[in-house]
Inverse folding.
């Protein structure tokens, strides 16, 4: 009997890529220097503290920590997060403003589910976090670039038509850029005037390498509006970068109506997050352990950033420009004269056993192929320096393989 052809996969899959899977796989290969993922340093993970918190959580909550739980999250954890956000922003937030999610990645997914219909418009910073692009791809959204400079005449109209704006103002992924307070305020004004939502994605807030970043856009809103929070900012937090990604604990802070709507979508997504990891997170957050740990890892990350920028200055400066980031996990390197296509360079880099992320995956259109994101948090300074040496060799090989570029070799 001839087997019948099985149904095709959904169409949106033709426009996606598996680059995140590739990076995570590289992380597990000892022979590859992976400067690709946005991963913390595993050797700094506080294993003993998490073990002790797990013991305490099970003793304190027993079977409640092992149940399906409230879709919005472990109630005590929601309350604690609300109290923290109130203290940090000076606003009034309650558990009704909090949804605990499976990392902030799930929050991005749920936001897409509740706000986007096919072909809707999103105003997003460009380049954009690739996980956000991935999570909204099934809806086939259109994008308009978020205009920080106030130079785009069509921006106000675009914002008014958009379902939401999306930004990572603290040490952005992929560029590492810290958005100034003035620009945050100007964006907030425009979002309020446009009557749309603004997703403020803030996983890197704790990685302050050269001083604090100043108030979030959520804080700016709270400072202007007294009373229970009901504003347009949908703020995303996570323990992934300040503590460990493996707990998969993130949260959304938003107007109560938005939280209820996201919870409705979450019901169909996972029925319930892990109450177990919520209970463990509660133990840690009650002692402010995440903040203490977050501060303790910063000097290590600063040393790694400096090692990367120092070695890159010696080896890559003929081809790439970059700004030293004041926080976060990434250096964004732009090819100086657009002669190096980083999609192509990536193949040469993998041959030399070093990985970065090419810019095309952060671009709405996939057309920007002239930059790369390089991570400095995952590897030791020595490994980072070795990565830069391999990258230099890869660029040399790439240039030799393309005769018209051979003049670029140092
Ligand atoms: C900008 C941004 N948002 C969200 C996430 C997802 O983080 P989480 O581990 O909390 O799902 C990341 C992870 O790298 C990120 O860089």
């Amino acid at each position: 009997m001839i087997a019948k052809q099985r149904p095709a996969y959904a169409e949106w899959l033709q426009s996606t890529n598996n680059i995140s899977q590739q990076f995570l796989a590289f992380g597990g290969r000892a022979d590859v220097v992976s400067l690709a993922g946005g991963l913390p340093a595993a050797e700094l993970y506080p294993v003993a503290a998490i073990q002790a918190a797990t013991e305490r959580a099970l003793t304190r909550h027993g079977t409640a920590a092992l149940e399906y739980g409230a879709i919005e999250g472990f109630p005590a954890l929601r309350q604690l997060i609300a109290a923290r956000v109130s203290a940090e922003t000076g606003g009034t937030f309650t558990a009704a403003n909090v949804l605990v999610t499976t990392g902030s990645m799930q929050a991005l997914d749920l936001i897409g589910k509740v706000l986007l219909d096919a072909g809707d418009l999103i105003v997003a910073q460009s380049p954009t976090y690739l996980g956000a692009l991935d999570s909204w791809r099934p809806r086939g959204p259109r994008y308009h670039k978020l205009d920080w400079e106030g130079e785009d005449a069509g921006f106000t109209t675009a914002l008014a038509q958009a379902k939401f704006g999306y930004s990572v103002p603290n040490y952005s992924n992929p560029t590492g850029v810290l958005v100034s307070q003035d620009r945050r305020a100007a964006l907030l004004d425009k979002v309020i005037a446009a009557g749309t939502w603004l997703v403020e994605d803030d996983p890197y807030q704790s990685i302050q390498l050269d001083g604090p970043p100043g108030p979030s856009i959520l804080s700016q809103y709270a400072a202007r509006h007294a009373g229970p929070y009901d504003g347009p900012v949908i703020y995303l937090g996570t323990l992934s970068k300040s503590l460990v990604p493996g707990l998969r604990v993130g949260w959304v802070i938003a107007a109560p109506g938005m939280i209820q709507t996201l919870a409705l979508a979450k019901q169909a997504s996972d029925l319930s997050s892990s109450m177990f990891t919520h209970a463990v997170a509660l133990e840690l957050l009650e002692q402010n352990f995440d903040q203490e740990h977050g501060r303790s890892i910063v000097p290590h990350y600063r040393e790694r950033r400096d090692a990367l920028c120092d070695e890159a200055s010696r080896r890559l400066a003929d081809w790439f420009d970059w700004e030293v980031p004041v926080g976060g996990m990434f250096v964004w390197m732009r090819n100086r004269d657009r002669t190096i296509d980083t999609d192509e360079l990536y193949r040469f880099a993998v041959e030399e056993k070093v990985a970065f992320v090419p810019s095309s995956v952060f671009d709405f259109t996939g057309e920007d192929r002239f930059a790369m994101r390089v991570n400095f948090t995952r590897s030791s300074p020595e490994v980072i320096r070795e990565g830069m040496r391999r990258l230099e060799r890869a660029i040399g090989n790439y240039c030799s393989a393309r005769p018209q570029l051979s003049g670029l070799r140092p």
Notes: The pocket of pyridoxal-5'-phosphate is lined by residues 38, 103-105, 129, 131, 168, 173, 201, 203, 238, 240, 245, 250 (CB under 6 Å). The chain is about 40% helix and 15% strand. The chain has a mean pLDDT of 94.
